[in-house]
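Input protein
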Amino acid sequence: MLLEGFYHIAQNNWAYAYDKDTIHVRVRTKRDDVEEVTAETGDKYNWDRFYREYPLKKTGADKMFDYWEASIKPYNKRVSYCFRIRAGSETVWLTENGVLSYRPMPTGGYYDIPYIHEIDLHTVPEWAKRAVFYQIFPERFANGDPSINPAHTERWGGKPTYDISFGGDLQGIIDHLDYLQDLGITALYLTPVFEAPSNHKYDIVDYKKVDPHFGTNALLHELVQACHLKGIKVMLDAVFNHCSEQFPPFQDVLKKGRKSQYAGWFHINSYPLATKDGIPSYDTFGFYGHMPKLNTSNPAVKKYLLEVAEYWVKEVGIDGWRLDVANEIDHYFWREFRDVVKAANPNAYIVGEVWNDSLKWLLGDQFDSVMNYPFSNKLLEFFSDSRMDGFDFATSISGLLIRYPQQTNEVIFNLLCSHDTPRVMNRVGNNKRRLKLCVVFLLTFMGTPCIFYGDEIGLTGGEDPDCRKCMEWDEDKQDRELFDFYKLLIALRRKHEVLVSGSFRFLRAEHGDRRIIYERLNHRVHFTVWMNNTGDKTILSHPMETNDWVDALTGEPVRTKDGRMFIQLEEFGYRILYRSLQ
């Protein structure tokens, strides 16, 4: 065994409390190097009486390592442990003091979880595990009240640019809630709705006022109430990293310079405020001078923004916040933000915009979730016309799952595209069959799925601003077959709890082969998903011990032959099977 490949620490994503009675432990070993991993556990005050062994299950692998996991139920909420690792006739013990050829006397040098304190648990909203989100860019979804259109509003459905408006508003969303309910949506994510000069509203002027071209504060309240009556949650976009240059405190600094009482609200590098060679003399979002960066460590700024966060939760009843440019704001601010929001609504869902590994925000003291762009990038690479094979895809996805604790993986915000990326249809070369494979994976995978408005009826679009096209409401111009497909898969996910909280594992993912099989499993139901990510018809085979499988979409029985399942798939085809374990 390659001892240098062993890894475990008693914290973060390697050992953590899943709930008040359960600890999850994970161990890394070199890929295909180890046959068996066992956790030897006991109580540090009475080892022998409470000694228990837990076999670890290999739950995933990347190109270099295997990942093993077990759930431990310790007596009295504390546990000391080491790992017994075997390959062939060789057995070693992994402890906090290193790798030994013998088991040391318990519990010196063992890993230790001193006590599960419920106040320290990383708890996430239960409703978010089961939610199916729909992201709306309000300016482009529907024009419900032309009387509040901006001046020079363009004809609905025209070519989007960075500056023009089409008149989408909150009333337009209210008018189409039946459409969303019919699709099966249970939660909305709205990009910013607060007063701002742009069409995207990420340059906010007044954080406590709905943009007049979208409606009023009262109308937003009406929208939230109407959604709640239909069982739909509402998450708004919080832009706390930066504001508009028209934001009154920034205007005061422009006029008064360092003498302004708001000078400390921003990161000013030199006075007077100016832009030279495209670089402002103050910190900004990117290098956009019209979006100055807020100093969230300033007590007055912090107080103002936390009041904003609390206001919309308490007064309007929103169910969560999506946090724009979240990784460029200090962790102290986000810890206080979480305390304020969770005090206002303990079930509020907090999603950060972080495009990379986000573990340091996901340890229970800041966010519940992040926008899982690493997932969408790998998914779209595999299901587009790329060179990625099943082995590379499986190792990539397994590597993403090991990044975070399970409770985070259960609510990670999974998406195929957004207002910041090309449309999924464009990413898969306008091939609807490839798109369907993406959607099947999204809706049968672990995490909280989100659909970008219009994807379900075939809306296309390239890079921003082309991805922000107007929603198409003429049914004759919608892909209704695609809509029905989305509706079918959403209903399947909502019907089967195993697709929400069951374990995930690849059963088949090989070098040089773009056909895959994976499973979702709990104590009641076993799902397997078969995918042919090639342009040729195929027969996909895998050992299956039982003969009680059913097609999840048609209800037809699917039989095995001599202990194997043989599934015929069309080009870019799929099949979803399940069986009851009770």
